Structure to design on (376 residues):
């Protein structure tokens, strides 16, 4: 849900920019660039390119990537997808900003030994002005222009993107419903409970992913979502088409899809407010780093002082309970184990990053390791 929450934030931010443009009645040009990056081919002892990125290394990349952005240019990163976007009244200003940003990204990738394929990149103009296609290139290769662009399963377009997205999701759901029918009508008779689980986890989950955005759709679009759900449940339970929806949902022990989308969107919004400025991704990475430090430090030390710039980890340790995050509980257990050996452990918070001696030292060590050993 962390990565999807970033996508929701991205979409809501784009919508707020659009509404701001309408209220001010100014011509706003917005360019969006989508890239897809992957690690270069490494020796056989290195991680496979399809393997999971180490969370701590990925967090380091995220912190370092922000330095490549020009002022006014924003980015969203999920796995191996990069979404760069910029909004301004002047198209020429946007073109200059994006060219400088892409050049900085190219230099950043060379430094970290990564590679972005220009063939998988695209750029789109999402404003309502007359289309113009200035030359914007990456690594000397001009990027192709598109009328719409898809990121994390959501299609961005200058036209009515709600209709485009509902058509895309409905087509994808119908293909899965047809596959479900081929399974449900077999003679060996699969269990209805398993088929309902397939409906929830494979078909209805298409709408759960972007629930914070789909929640803003009109009642007509939400009714289309309910029709897809009832069609899938009839195929799973083998009930005729004239079965009332209220009875169908009661037998399947399900709630309407539109109501569940609104409930999940509300939960995501409340969770986002509860976290505030603290990101669970960075908190877990910092907690894992502290756990690894406690594992590698010798047990014969009397006093240990650990410096961290994650205030959320210290707050979680100060408010420890049985419902705390598993990684926080693991960190607390390691600290308690060392205290049994009469070790005094002190956790110090170092605010900020730049200008802090120990943070700068840790950053330099991370850069030195990345240059010396590509197999980390």
């Amino acid at each position: 849900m962390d990565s999807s929450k970033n996508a929701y934030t991205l979409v809501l931010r784009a919508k707020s920019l659009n509404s701001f443009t309408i209220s001010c009645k100014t011509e706003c040009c917005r360019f969006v660039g989508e890239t897809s990056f992957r690690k270069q081919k490494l020796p056989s002892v290195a991680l496979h390119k399809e393997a999971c990125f180490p969370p701590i290394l990925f967090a380091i990349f995220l912190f370092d990537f922000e330095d490549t952005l020009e002022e006014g240019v924003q980015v969203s990163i999920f796995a191996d997808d990069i979404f760069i976007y910029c909004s301004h009244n002047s198209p020429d200003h946007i073109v200059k900003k994006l060219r400088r940003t892409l050049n900085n990204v190219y230099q950043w990738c060379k430094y970290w030994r990564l590679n972005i394929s220009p063939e998988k990149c695209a750029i789109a103009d999402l404003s309502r002005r007359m289309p113009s296609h200035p030359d914007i290139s990456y690594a000397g290769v001009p990027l192709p222009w598109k009328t719409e662009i898809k990121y994390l399963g959501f299609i961005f377009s200058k036209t009515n993107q709600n209709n485009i997205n509902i058509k895309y999701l409905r087509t994808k759901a119908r293909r899965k419903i047809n596959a479900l029918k081929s399974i449900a009508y077999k003679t060996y008779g699969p269990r209805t409970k398993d088929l309902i689980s397939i409906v929830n986890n494979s078909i209805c989950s298409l709408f759960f992913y972007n629930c914070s955005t789909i929640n803003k759709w009109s009642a007509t679009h939400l009714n289309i979502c309910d029709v897809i759900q009832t069609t899938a449940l009839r195929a799973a339970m083998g009930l005729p088409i004239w079965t009332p929806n209220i009875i169908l949902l009661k037998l399947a022990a399900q709630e309407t899809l539109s109501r569940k989308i609104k409930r999940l969107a509300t939960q995501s919004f409340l969770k986002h407010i509860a976290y505030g400025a603290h990101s669970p991704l960075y908190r877990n990475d910092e907690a894992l780093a502290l756990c690894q430090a406690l594992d590698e430090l010798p047990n014969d030390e009397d006093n240990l002082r650990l410096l961290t710039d994650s205030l959320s980890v210290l707050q979680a340790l100060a408010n420890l309970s049985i419902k705390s995050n598993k990684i926080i509980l693991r960190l607390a257990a390691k600290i308690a184990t060392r205290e049994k050996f009469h070790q005094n452990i002190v956790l110090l918070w170092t605010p900020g990053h730049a200008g802090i001696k120990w943070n700068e030292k840790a950053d330099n060590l991370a850069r030195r390791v990345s240059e010396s050993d590509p197999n980390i």
Q: What stands out?
A: The first helix runs from residue 2 to 24. The radius of gyration is 25 Å. Residues 161-275 form one domain.
